[in-house]
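Hey, I was hoping to borrow your eyes for a little while. No rush at all, and the record is pasted right below:
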Amino acid sequence: MDTVNCVSFLAPAKLNLTLKVYGKRPDGYHHIRSLMVPISLYDTVTVSVIPRGIRVESDRGDVPSDSRNSCGRAAELFMAWAGSPAGVHVRIRKVIPMEAGLGGGSSDAAATLKGLMALTGKNPPPEILRGMAAKVGADVPFFTVGTAALAEGIGEKLTPVDWTVPFHAVIVKPPFGLPTPEGYARLRREPGEPPARGDYVPPRDWNELAGCLENDFERAWAEVHPQIDGIGKELVAAGADAAAMTGSGSAIFGLFRTEEGARRALGALSRDGGNTVFLARNI
């Protein structure tokens, strides 16, 4: 591989601490409102400039290497904006599970954009970067911000928030993924605008944080995947102060005040049925 230069970025996962889904938009998407926080569970994305073409490879065989890959789409959009005839090679080392609601593919795409900004020295204005990211996927703009944020619209309207409540999370990924389009279809939302909101105040202490968790997709999937509710109850029984699904699923997380408490729960949770368990904290 004839590389000119390369750079690597850690691509963090995220948790949706709250996720409300409102009416359908004319473009077929849905209005959402979600409090999103980046966490210390990472893929690693290495971006190289090559003479020509867009190439994506991963250490996992089920990660697309063609135009379905969000990193490839991000690279195409960025190089077109930059007016560069050069190509891009992206290598992804996956840790964040797929179809889990943790945003791994979106974070990888944002890391690709950051890598290309570093390599080319060309930095799109924030509104251009967010627009580029939104064309790749609804969660990609969030990962360009680098902090907790309230996401609205389809996820591209972001209000960064100062995060003051540290937490540790135990994340359980069941042995199945949940396709996002089916999740939205199960919600059966009619067309309509979301309710207006006033000034947003994020959780200011532990009780407010533990009390705010909610995710509309949990109800959407409850009938066909009752084990999701069971995992949440198991997390609470293991010591979590609250538990919820993240994104459109299928991962469920429990919140803990301390790393010690989270690690105790990690050891107590059942791995029966193929569940995979992760430990993370807010970043």
Remarks:
- The longest helix spans residues 104-120.
- The chain has a mean pLDDT of 93.
- The chain has two domains: 5-160, 168-281.
